[in-house]
Write a structure and sequence with these properties.
It is a single chain. This protein has 213 residues and is of the alpha+beta class. It has helices spanning 2-21, 33-49, 56-70, 73-81, 84-87, 90-108, 111-115, 172-186, 191-204; strands at 23-26, 119-127, 131-139, 145-154, 160-167, 170-171. Strands 1-2-3-4-5-6 form a six-stranded mixed β-sheet. A hairpin with a 5-residue loop joins strand 3 (131-139) and strand 4. It starts with a helix and ends in a 9-residue tail after the last helix.
């Protein structure tokens, strides 16, 4: 189980690293708004986060801003808690939102440098009723291309937001849901208790990617 969890964790790291760092070559139609959104996000990320003159604190803040502005962090956070979200009080819910954002930053910011410049191509954009699926391919560490699917939803007023990413059948938010609902079940559904455990892990740097995978 630990080997499987590590594989999933590494895959999701590649996904978000790809979202905010890879040089995109689009082969989709030029008028595909969802594809253009993804390309614009890449350009903004590279421009801001590749600046060697900024401090690590400034880079983290810029990464956090890009993450919260372009990923549906609140929606994903609610999804990964599952049925326990409805049972929780407002206080623990709000705290979990903040904690989940911190986890995402600690886990995925280091992958920016690791995957910058990797070969990444948008191959197709499919419009659904209320969202888009953007198909892409990214070259992995082993050199083999992996297919990545992005679920992108239009905002109510204007613009887009990324609501999920999947690679080789592995969904980012579904993976987190499996982890957190399992933990909550063992804690009797107590979101406050889970928040306390996650805070300790953040403080210890447990969510940062490990060098050995």
């Amino acid at each position: 189980m630990k080997l499987i969890s590590r594989l999933i964790s590494n895959t999701t790291a590649l996904l978000v690293g790809a979202a905010l760092s890879l040089a995109i070559t689009t082969t989709a139609r030029a008028d595909d708004d969802a594809g253009l959104f993804l390309k614009s996000l890449q350009e903004e990320a590279v421009s801001q986060l590749s600046d060697e003159s900024i401090s690590s604190e400034e880079r983290e803040q810029q990464f956090r801003s890009l993450l919260t502005e372009n990923f549906d962090i609140s929606g994903i956070a609610k999804f990964v808690v599952g049925k326990y979200w409805r049972k929780a009080e407002d206080g623990p819910r709000s705290e979990f939102m903040t904690i989940f954002e911190d986890i995402m930053v600690q886990r995925f910011l280091p992958t920016f440098s690791k995957y910058a410049g990797s070969d990444f191509k948008i191959t197709k954009v499919v419009k659904k009723k209320s969202f888009y699926i953007v198909f892409s391919k990214v070259k992995t560490e082993g050199g083999e291309p992996a297919q990545i699917l992005w679920r992108i939803q239009a905002k109510e007023n204007s613009g887009f937001v990324i609501t999920d990413i999947a690679a080789e059948g592995i969904s980012l938010r579904s993976t987190y849901k499996s982890d957190y609902t399992s933990a909550l079940k063992s804690l009797g559904g107590d979101l406050s208790a889970l928040n306390g455990k996650l805070r300790k892990k953040i403080k210890s740097g447990d969510f940062a990617p490990k060098e050995n995978g």
